[in-house]
Amino acid sequence: MKVTLDGYRKIQQYKELGLSKVKTAEKIKISRDTVAKWWDISEDEFMHSSSTIFKYLDNYKEFFLEQIRTYPSIRSTNLYYKTEEAFPDFKCTRERFFSYIKKLRENYGFAVPTARKTTPRKAALPGEEAQVDFGQYKMKDMYGRIVRVYFFCMVLSYSRMRFVYFQTQPFTTETAIKAHEYAFRYFGGRTRTIMYDQDKVFVVSENYGNVIFVPEFEEYVKETGYSIVLCRPRDPQTKGKVEAMVGTVKYNFLEGRTYTGIDSLNSAALAWCDDVLNNRIHVATQKIPREAFKEEITELIKVPYKATAFNNIRMVQYDFSVEYRRCLYYIPQELVKVGDSVRVEEDDEKLVFRNPEDETVIYIAQKGTYRGERVLPDVGENEDSVNYNALKRRYKDSEIALEFLEKVAEKVTRYKNTHYRGMYTLSKVYTSNEMESAMAHCIQADNCTMHELAAYLIYRYGARKARYQMSKHMFYGCKQRAAQLQEELL
User: Fold this and answer.
1) How far apart are CA 275 and CA 140, in angstroms?
2) Which of 397, 391, 483 is CA-nearest to residue 430?
3) Are 333 and 401 within one domain?
4) Which of 83, 95, 186, 265 is the 20 to 30 A CA-CA neighbour of 294?
5) Residue 117 falls within a domain, yes or no?
6) How far apart, in whole angstroms, are the C-alpha atoms of residue 126 and residue 192?
7) Residue 52: which pLDDT band, with cuts at 50, 70 and 90?
8) Are both 373 and 386 inside the same structural domain?
9) 294 and 321: one domain?
10) What is each CA distance from 337 to 221, 319, 321, 322, 325, in whole angstroms?
11) What would the pLDDT profile of 190-213 be if each residue is shown by its tens digit?
12) pTM of the model
């Protein structure tokens, strides 16, 4: 006869009260042999008995089925916690619970597959497919400091020809496109399809098969003309060729290597690809990739230069800044005009700004180190000329302004750029007529300084505009001088 948990507890209760097995059997109305079976058994041992626990869990079966129907993928562990929350007196070992839920799922058609079923992929034809993936690795430089490098891998599925490209910053959509450009140049063309996982560099989101690509990447793919195949991340059954290469790069090339610069690393990587990786028999194909590539190269599609060119055009803003990768780079004002177009190129730790028409170099800046950084121009000894030339360009048709600037250059011997910078800042908030009237006063008073200019502007046109263009100390000094001017000129 089956005994429930309540029946077992009654047996133990009568045992503690001192009743005999016979009297206990009479009270519960079960046989004496059944009482004897559970008389000296602990509750844990009773719960471990499958013949008992399954009957006990049947009392909660409707609750289990309700949860499974609502959340078909719910884990047995979560279901166990939910049952404990819903029924405080619930008691069952996890092993028995998991075994019961597994059978319950099988009986009611909610079985969870225990392993992914795969079949061998069909061998790729020459020029048909390439696979792409990213990796990162910590190296040490000659001083023992840790340097993290990031790399891009591309493998041609037929010949197993491989390419790797390194950089010191995490890949963005723009730099990933640049890496594609280098890979296509290395192979001499592209395949008809390229396989990726759903990396944020390429994919914004994916909703039930509706994939939204990063706009810049989608445009590049359209221009270049190849098709995309997406798979799950870390999926060796689908794109194991390139995932194996990521491991090869880490442990066969980078491990034990000292970092001596990103250019040196990329040069060594290309030599390694040529001499070792693509020049030895591949384990899977039993062919040398370079030899198999002779069959594949004729099937690769040439990529026009226009499609692969890394044309990163930016416009010079009103404050002579150029926004690139969430940083603002300020170009010396004598080199460009507001509204000009410049093309940005990355060169190791520097940015090169070029004229997009004739490719001449306009300016070279150090790369920003954090998001939102303002990278000011490093003009060295010519620092004074930056704002001075900007003021001359702004007031090139004003004789008063040009005379004023000449007198400033003659009379101010120290901290000239502080004067020029302050004047240029004020010229952004005051009109040309207001600035010229203040300059005329300075010439007449024979006091051509930024302090006198600002004081007159505050006196004549109010302090509101100037207040946020100067430091607090300078503003209050100019305000005091403005009060003196009010007494002198009235």
Assistant:
1) 24
2) 391
3) no
4) 265
5) no
6) 10
7) low
8) no
9) no
10) 34, 10, 10, 12, 21
11) 999 999 887 777 877 655 445 677
12) 0.46
Q: How far apart are CA 105 and CA 365, in angstroms?
A: 64
- SS percent in the chain: helix, strand, coil, step 5: 50, 15, 35
Strands (E), 249-320: 258-259, 313-315
CA pair distance 180, 307, nearest whole angstrom: 11
Q: Is residue 292 part of a domain?
A: yes
Residue 225 sits in a domain of what CATH number? 3.30.420.10
pLDDT digits (tens, 9 = 90+) for 208-256: 445 677 888 888 888 888 888 887 666 666 778 898 899 999 988 998 8
Burial level of 378, CB count in 10 A (0-12/13-18/19+)?
Answer: exposed
Average pLDDT, the chain: 81
Pairwise CA distance, residues 287 & 279, whole Å? 9
Which helix (H) or strand (E) segment holds residue 329: the answer is strand 327-330
**Residue 382 pLDDT:** 42
Q: Which residue, 349, 378, 407, sits at the end of a domain?
A: 378
366-373: long-range contacts (C-beta < 8 A, 24 or more apart)? 367/327, 368/325, 368/326, 368/327, 368/329, 371/326, 371/327, 372/326, 372/327, 373/327, 373/328
Tokens 């959340």 correspond to: 71
Averaged pLDDT for residues 389-410? 81
151 and 240 in one domain? yes
Residues 183 and 162: their CA atoms lie apart, in Å, by 9
310-325 pLDDT, tens digit each: 457 788 888 888 888 7
Q: Where are the beta strands (DSSP E) in 157-221?
A: 162-167, 193-197, 203-207, 210-213
The domain tally of the chain equals: 4
Q: Are residues 150 and 270 in the same domain?
A: yes
Domain for residue 118, yes or no? Answer: no
Please check the confidence at residue 306 and state whether its pLDDT lies above 60: no
The two three-digit tokens of residue 94, written as one number: 């996890």
**Boundaries of domain holding 352:** 311-378
Asked which of 108, 137, 160 is the last residue of a domain, the reply is 108
| 40 & 25 share domain | yes
Give the pLDDT of residue 308: 43
Tell me: do 452 and 345 sit in the same domain.
Answer: no
Q: Which of 22-36, 68-82, 341-355, 442-456 is most confident?
A: 442-456
Structural domain includes residue 289: yes
Sign of CA dihedral 142, 146, 152, 153: positive
